[in-house]
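Take a specimen:
=====
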Amino acid sequence: MKAVFIADAHLDGSNSDGYRYLMRFLNSIRGGTDELFILGDFFDFWVAGKNGVYTGFSDVVEKLLEIHRAGTGISFFEGNHDYFLSDYFEPYGIRVFSEGAAIDMDGKRLFLSHGDTVNTPNKAYLALRRLLRSDLIYKTQKKVPPPLLWAISRVISGMSRSCEGPSSNGLVGKINMFAMEKFEEGADAVILGHFHSPRFEQHVVHDRVRTVAILGDWIRHYSYLLYDDGEFMMKSGIPSD
């Protein structure tokens, strides 16, 4: 069993280093990976408007569909910059989760989430999150002309970022407490995005090795988590050439 976990590419339609490295990386896993899990903020903004995919995302979306057609299962976990993904992706057979979820894979129980709700005292962010995912916003954005919709989405993306709070370095205690709660519920691994700085730890809890992984990003770190033949490994996606 081989699985890849990535998060926080924050693609905005530009030809950035992160975009180019990510496209090369996606090419490299085509046909050789059983599962690809994308844990949020793959896109810096996404809306489910009536006119389909934002032009700047068309190549990477087609690459994901190509990988899926080649036999890789793909699961999206929505982040705080990309939501309402199911309208577009689920008709292709790509799974979409609006919240964190426990997944059974290869005899292990994994808890996967974007991670943006770990810092529960951040009330301003949680209120904004509820608003942006509401039925009101969903129905409204369906009626907005595409050029205006993309412009509004960029503004909302900036609002979400301003409310996010500290990186994982400022939340180590909360992340570890969150992971321990999931371990007590039976998880073998807790895998999160959102915090941008990659971290990988393993602990023995109740005589089992448990894994905590923060996936990092494709802006500075180009990092991902690989599961291969029963082992988790944090890797870099920067091409060797």
Observations:
- The domain at 2-236 is CATH 3.60.21.50 (Purple Acid Phosphatase; chain A, domain 2).
- The longest strand covers residues 199-205.
- Residues 224 and 235 are 5 Å apart (CA to CA).
- The radius of gyration is 17 Å.
